[in-house]
Specification:
Elements lengths: L6 H18 L7 H14 L5 E4 L5 H8 L4 E5 L2 H10 L4 E4 L11 E7 L7 H14 E13 L4 E6 L2 E7 L4 H10 L3 E8 L10 E8 L13
Parallel strand pairs: 1-2, 1-4, 2-3, 4-5
Antiparallel strand pairs: 5-9, 6-7, 8-9
Helix pairs in contact: 1-4
This protein binds S-adenosylmethionine (SAM).
Length: about 220
């Protein structure tokens, strides 16, 4: 029997989808730092090609990019979450799928993944990032965010809903080293404390990386 490492995560988010949407779908209104980053990401990717929002949840990041003219598709493991995103943003493209088996021929201008790689085991990440690099056009961008820490958490209950899900915490260095091992160039790194009253009480990191393979216009950090 083949064991699906994402099965319990998918089932958990299927159960969480409605409450997650109620709590989180409007959160960008209170997160100016994230909006600024997404504005810059939209401006950089718009001329390069379509963007995937991986682990899109209720689709608020995809919607924000769409409003800035980006051709965006949201992809999520949980079909209930995809249903929420479609109901909330009927004009946008969302589909069920896993960020671990992205089509390398997607020719993407960008990939954004906010707080979704936290559900992918460390041993699977470098191979996944290498697929993402292949899916990006030369010069294409990846913007990834995660919770900073050294101790993972397993939850059996969230907001009174029974779940069975790991939330992995990473150091910026460890994700950065996997991105580099996957052939991406890390261009910018940001860390910030949580927005009080809006977010869970965890420190956050955002890494911006680029596929420089075949990218003649690459400006390397420090050059
Ligand atoms: C913490 S939520 C983040 C959602 C959204 N990006 C946000 O910023 O609010 C994590 C999301 O990742 C999705 N997810 C987990 N594993 C995934 C996988 N292998 N492929 C695609 N989505 C996945 C979950 O279903 C969930 O919607």
């Amino acid at each position: 029997m083949i064991c699906d490492p994402d099965e319990t995560t998918r089932d958990s988010y299927d159960r969480l989808a409605a409450e997650y949407t109620r709590r989180i779908a409007g959160e960008l209104a209170g997160k100016p730092f994230d909006r600024d980053l997404l504005d810059a990401f939209a401006a950089s990717t718009i001329k390069l090609g379509p963007v995937y929002d991986l682990g899109c949840g209720p689709g608020h990041v995809a919607a924000y990019l769409h409003e800035r003219g980006v051709e965006v598709t949201g992809i999520d493991l949980s079909s209930a979450m995809v249903d929420q995103a479609r109901a909330l943003r009927p004009g946008l493209r969302f589909r069920q799928g896993s960020m671990t088996d992205l089509d390398e021929r997607a020719c993407l201008g960008g990939i954004v993944a906010f707080y979704s790689v936290i559900h992918i085991g460390r041993d699977r990440q470098t191979a996944m990032f290498a697929r993402w690099r292949d899916a990006l056009v030369p010069g294409g961008w990846l913007l990834v965010s995660f919770h900073v820490g050294e101790r993972d958490r397993h939850l059996n209950d969230l907001w009174g809903i029974p779940v069975d899900v790991d939330f992995l915490f990473f150091t910026p260095e460890e994700i950065e080293s996997r991105l580099v091992a996957a052939g991406l160039t890390v261009v910018e790194r940001y860390e910030r404390p949580p927005y009080a009253g809006i977010e869970a009480d965890t420190r956050r990191c955002y890494l911006l990386a680029r596929n420089d393979e075949g990218n003649d216009e690459a400006t390397h950090p420090g050059s």
